[in-house]
Write a structure and sequence with these properties.
It contains 14 helices and six strands. By secondary structure, the chain is α/β, with parallel strands linked by helices. It has a six-stranded mixed beta sheet, sandwiched between helices. α1 runs antiparallel to α2, α1 crosses α3 and α4 packs antiparallel against α5.
Amino acid sequence: MKELVKEIRDIIDSSRVNAVRSVDFCRVQMYWQIGRRIVEEEQGGKARAEYGKGLIKNLAKELEPVYGSGFGKRQLDYSKKFYLEFPIVHTLYAQLNWSQYKWLLDIPDKDKREYYMLEAVNNCWTARQMKRQIDSMLYERLLLSNDKEAVLAMARKEKLPETPQEIVKDPMVLEFLGLEKKARYYESDLETELINHLQEFILELGNGFTFVARQKRIQIEDDEFFVDLVFYNRLARRFVIFELKTGEVTHQDLGQLQMYVNYYDRLEKLPDENPTIGILLCTAKNDTLVKMTLPADNNTIVASKYQLYLPSEQQLIAEVEKVKKEWEESR
C-alpha cells in the first residue's frame, strides 16, 4: 500500500509540474503571437513610424481594462521586442517562462543573452535563480578568467570544462549567506552557512557539482587533518576541494591545500578520473604571492576571492578591462 501511495503521489506531482510548465509556455507563445501581430500591423500601416508609435498605446487602452496589467503598454512593448528578437517560433525554449524571456530581452549583448538563455535551459534554473545569476553578473565574472568563445562553447555543450579557471569563478559572490560585513568572523561560521545554503552555493559553483563531505578527516601516519568541503564535478570528472579562509591567503595555506590535493590524487582518485582541483576561498589574495608559492606549471590549485554582496556593474566591467589589458600585454 505504501508503495502504491508513493507511485500515485509521484504521478500527481509530476503532472502538476508539467501542467505549470505547459501553462507557462502557452503564455510565452501568446506574447510571441501578440508581438507578431503588432509588427505585422505596423509594417502594413501607411505612415509606419507615426502609426507604430500610437498603435501599442491604443492597444493597451483597449486591452488593459479587460485583461489586466499583463496587457499594458510595457508588456506589449516587450511582446513586440520578443517577436523581433525571436522571429521563428521553434527557437523558443519551453523550459523558460515569460519572466525569464523579459530579463533576456533586457540584455542588449547577444552573446551574453545567449549564454544566460542556454545555461537557464541546461541547469533548469527557476526564474528566481536566473535573476540572481544575472544580478551577480555571472557572465562577466566568467570572462575574468576565460575568453568569450570558451564560455559560450561550454554553454552550448560544445566543450567540457577542463582547467581550474573554467570551473572556478573569481570572485565568487556569496550574498545569499546573509553574513554581516564585519571585520572578523570565524571560518566555521562561513562553513556552516555554506552548508545551510548548499543549494545556493552549488548554483554559484556552476555546472556538474555534487556535494561529497564536510570536514573530511584524512590521516597521514599519526597526524590527522580535516578538509573543509569536498565536492565532485561530474562533467570534469574530478574532485574539487575547498579550504575556507576569512583573511588574506598565505603561502602556508597554499601548502596545506596542495597536501590535500596530493592526498586525493594518490589515495581517493580513480585511475580514469582527472586530477583533483583545490580551491582556497579567501576574502583577499595577493596574486603575486600565489604565483610565487605554486609551481610555474600549476594547474590544480586556485585562490578565489569571495564577497558577501552583489558586485556593481562598474566594478566588474573595470575588472574585465583590466584582465583584457593584462592578457594583451603578456602576448
